[in-house]
Amino acid sequence: MADATASVYYKELYEDMYGDSHEREVLWDAAKFDQVNPMLTDENGEYGWDVPSGLWQVRVVKDGYLATESEWLPVPPPQLDVNLAMQQPTAPVVQRVTATEQGVDLRFDKYMKPAHLTSENIFLTRNGQKLDGTLRLMDAEPTPDSTKTFARRVLFQPAQPLKLNDKVRLTVKAGIESYADVGLLNDFTQEFDVEQHVSELVADSVVGILHGDDYTVTVSALPAAVAKGKKVSVKSLNPDIASIAATELTLDQNGQTTLTIKGQGYGTTAVRFTLADDQEIQTLTVVGVKDADGLLTRRPTASRISGTEVLYGSPVSLRCETPGAVIYYTLDGSCPCENPNRLRYENPIRIVSNLTLKAIAVAPGYAESDVATFTYKVKYDPEGIESTTLKDSDKENGMVYDLQGRQIVNSKSANRSLRRGLYIKNRRKFVVR
Are 317 and 379 in contact (CB under 8 A)? Predict the structure, then answer.
């Protein structure tokens, strides 16, 4: 929890006027050791001090929460992971609801008991009819002692996708309890329009940067169709290791933007990307800054955002920014690392069915990259025949290639198919007419 006031106390022995020994609790004067006490917890709820030998206790307070404190802890040994739970005794409320084609995203202002987040207590209706569906806990977190789990965000996924501009009514029953054993005071019920919202930010989860070098990260929003013009806030968690070229980015018409990160100092940190108008939508890129002998080949990137729907036959290209890198990939969800069935990437891959594409890159003098995973879903024609219009730019040296990069028609046949403007997929064979 951020911005809570944490204080550390120690036990001091003293003698009274009669020579009797007593014990008292004293707020530690950290200024003598070039530290601060009390201190505010950071954005991750973290605090800490380097203290001399003795018996110590941490106390934490914040407006609206019950004060909490640790046990008395001896130093030495070093006391690490002194995790303190804070309780907010007020009743929970529904903080935010968004209704999209994928479902209804419900967020409480407090973490709730999962046993209460059931279809009996949370459900969706349309025109008075209850919709079938499932509930997913989107941010379930265990307590520090791992004895309990709580969640604040719940996604109702209907059995059949909702339609844009539909009206649906969400009901949350009173009595469901927060982690602090306090229940929702009244039923929550409200009607919502089904709209498109950005549901996810995607970026490389881990990148390696040569000390003193730059690296460009691509950030993508899903669904891309509604992301154009939206702002993304950026923060480096340790600018001394990884500095960033901008603190705010704007998503383009494809729902994408880029950020240049510079390797300033050796070590590992992270860069956080947050959708400006929805602070719950975030992603982290872990950044490792190393010498060349400890650097991984950069992970392959794709020309299409992972997780999107594409027209049948649409091409996807792979690239790697490490000079001299060779990319290997699979299309069956298996790992391309040392896989005898992996394919060497040479030409754009045409997407003719739902697939999971996994790729790695290998470059001379670098360790093998991490695995990059991309998933795509094909939009089918209403009558069951999948087709796509081909463009001159789709040809590779007058040839057309299948999923494995093999030539399937010669340039003469390809030109005929281009004039016709369609690929026809019949069962699992390509037929060019």
Answer: no
